[in-house]
Design a protein that fits this description.
Helix 1 packs across helix 3. This protein has 9 helices and 11 strands. The N terminus is likely disordered. The longest helix has 15 residues. The protein has a domain of 181 residues: Class I glutamine amidotransferase (GATase) domain (Rossmann fold), CATH 3.40.50. 28% of the residues lie in helices and 26% in strands. A hairpin with a 2-residue loop joins strand 10 and strand 11. With 268 residues, the protein is α/β, with parallel strands linked by helices.
Length: 268
């Protein structure tokens, strides 16, 4: 049985890694110094393909959200989307569920909750490769994984937006993980990118792909990072900090107005 104590113990290494950049944390807090997560009702749903270690990632993020004052409900079944009144009772959904299937009723409840104002946040395949047959779900997320040429490789993440609070103050960094090639909504707000070489797929060499983005679906905030193939990826301080800031940002979906942006890729 997973206890609160084991959550805290297992997440100690990741929290310690984040301490490398403590001066950056305040940029994601509210003006009074409290966390946006304080008092927020969060549903953390984990499962699907276990190769992405959703249980170990749970043990990183659930204790951290609770330490920031969030009231977190944890579920290892997608039935949580229909067993709870998401519109009324949940401020934020954090999903770590790679592949698998979602029923029509489960998907409808999830999409309607976000469209009505609940935030949603996730990473890697847990949000960006969850339900491959569900295009409306992918429309909500803003992108879909399609390949990771070469598998686990060395690659660089470039911070492309230094003004957004999620990436402000962070610098480019290196990862040894899966470099996600994604099909993307042209109107997501891209915060970080990666450039592919031609070693494993010659025809994509030089192409730039988003790594971190945020967007809106209806009235709900959506945050996604393609980092986090396994829990150890969050030992990279920037990867962990980006995910924490994105979760905080999405948690304010019902409480702050959404900035307006349009980034049409093909506009002359």
């Amino acid at each position: 049985m997973i206890t609160r104590r084991s959550f805290i113990e297992k997440s100690a290494a990741a929290i310690a890694a984040a301490a490398i950049v403590p001066s950056l944390y305040s940029r994601a807090l509210l003006p009074d110094g409290t966390s946006p997560l304080n008092g927020k009702k969060v549903l953390y749903v984990w499962g699907g393909w276990m190769g992405h270690e959703p249980d170990k990632c749970r043990d990183i993020f659930v204790p951290w959200m609770e330490s920031e004052g969030a009231v977190v409900s944890v579920s290892d079944t997608l039935d949580a989307y229909i067993n709870m009144d998401l519109k009324k009772d949940i401020d934020l959904i954090v999903q770590a569920w790679t592949m698998g299937t979602i029923t029509n009723n489960q998907e409808k409840a999830l999409l309607e909750a976000v469209k009505s104002g609940a935030g949603i946040a996730g990473w890697h395949g847990g949000l960006g490769d969850s339900f491959r047959n569900n295009t409306e779900y992918q429309f909500m997320v803003g992108g879909q994984w399609v390949a990771h040429p070469g598998g686990v490789i060395d690659y660089r993440v470039n911070i492309t937006d230094q003004k957004d609070p999620i990436t402000k103050g962070l610098t480019d960094f290196d990862m040894h993980s899966e470099q996600y090639y994604v099909h993307i909504d042209p109107n997501v707000k891209v915060l970080a990118t990666t450039t592919f070489n031609d070693t494993n797929a010659s025809w994509i060499g030089g192409n730039v792909c988003p790594v971190v983005w945020k967007k809106v679906y209806g009235s709900g905030r959506v945050f996604y990072s393609s980092l986090g193939h396994v829990a150890a990826d969050f030992n990279v301080p920037q990867a962990l900090e980006i995910q924490k800031r994105g979760i905080r940002w999405a948690s304010m979906s019902k409480y702050e107005s959404m900035e307006v942006w349009k980034q049409p890729v093909y506009k002359k």
